[in-house]
Amino acid sequence: MSALEIQHLRKSFGLTEIIRGTDLQVHEGERLALIGPNGAGKSTLFALISGQLVPDAGRIRLHGMDVTGHPPYRVARAGLGRSFQVSNLFGALSVRENLCIAAMWSQGQRLGLLSSLARHRPLAARVDELLGMLELGAREDTPARDLSYADQRLLEIGMTVAGNPRCVLLDEPTAGMSRAETQRVISLVRRISEGRTLMMIEHDMNVVFDLADRIAVLVYGQVIAVDTPAAVRSHPAVRAAYFGQHASQEAAEDA
After folding, report:
1. Is the dihedral of CA 61, 65, 67, 71 positive or negative?
2. CB 196 within 8 A of CB 167
3. What secondary structure letter does DSSP report for 230?
4. C-alpha angle with apex 131: 129 to 135, nearest 5 degrees?
5. Cross-strand pairs, 169
């Protein structure tokens, strides 16, 4: 059974059709990278999957459950976690408090539990586990707004998996990072994706080829290829649409 199944999905804004009959299956336990040129519809597709947007047509199934048009909280409680391009943190709250809120929200608990976290040992243990995974234990009492950009991105990934979702969507997790910071994120993504299904949007092709089991290429709202990294790298239509005309000319010269 597929972890995520998208069938004939469509979404328009006014007269502009952004997602045009998209079909995609993400296998249980795989890491799939979604790539494509700017404006291809990648973030719109993520918004449809996670419930931020309602499709005009088509179906979305998460672990066999039809979640088409469900609000984000219902999709999340069906087993989906999602990060965003721009950090979506509670800036005035500490690192620990941000993780605690994310863990509680995923379980439908009230935020008032923050004042009595010590009485909820499983929740406290989960937050401690996340702090260790993120290597942010030394900064657990630091307001999120005072973290470096890279640490804010790490914290958001931690919040995304705080509720132990079975399927995780990461939207450009390494955007704007140095090489060393990118390596930290790659290492974290490897850890958080163990035993889970991962779908990520990523423009850094080194990250894509390092992490992905398969790559889906979205161009003008349609998936034009889904295959292994090696096969996608050499796919003529992908090279023309995503890697640019120069790559296509190189391929022709090599033929």
Report:
1. negative
2. yes
3. H
4. 120
5. 82, 199
